[in-house]
Amino acid sequence: KLHESNGSLSVIASIADVNHLYGCQGLAILSNGTRVLGELQPYVISPIMPAFLEHELQNTTVSWGEEYGINCKAGGVKSTLEIRVNGGLWPLRHIQILNDTLIECRAFNSYAEENASAY
User: Fold this and answer.
1) How far, in Å, CA of 105 to CA of 43, rounded?
2) Any residues with CB less than 8 A from the CB of 113 and at least 6 apart, and which?
3) Is residue 83 within 8 Å of 105, Cβ to Cβ?
4) What is this structure's pTM?
5) Which domains does the chain have, with CATH numbers?
6) For the chain, how far is it from start to end, CA to CA, in angstroms?
7) Strands, DSSP E only, in 1-119?
8) Is pLDDT at 5 greater than 70 in this prediction?
9) Cα(95)–Cα(73) distance, rounded to whole angstroms?
10) What is the rounded CA–CA span in Å between residue 70 and residue 87?
11) Contact 107, 74 (CB under 8 A)
């Protein structure tokens, strides 16, 4: 709303979330009642949610040759999951146990990281 006495302008804002996409558009109502609509300016706002591991690893006794399912899952915004077996990157979610094995999971994003390990 335009306040003629001091030349200030009141702004009414409304926002809607569609995949973190927001728009901002100005509207002015002139003294003669004419409505002037500004251009829509899009903005992407990513909420801050740190990375986390959804399941904790636990030390487990597994028989020789047994298939072990690696129960790691990353949560958080744009998080990445990294699995390591005996220090090396591991691309799979399972492993055949043939000796003592250290399994490490790491969830990370630009906000935080969480690590867990089991032997």
Assistant:
1) 34
2) 51, 106, 107
3) yes
4) 0.61
5) 2-44 (no CATH), 52-118 (2.60.40)
6) 66
7) 2-3, 8-9, 21-24, 27-29, 35-37, 41-44, 52-53, 67-69, 74-75, 80-85, 88-89, 94-96, 103-108, 113-118
8) no
9) 16
10) 15
11) yes
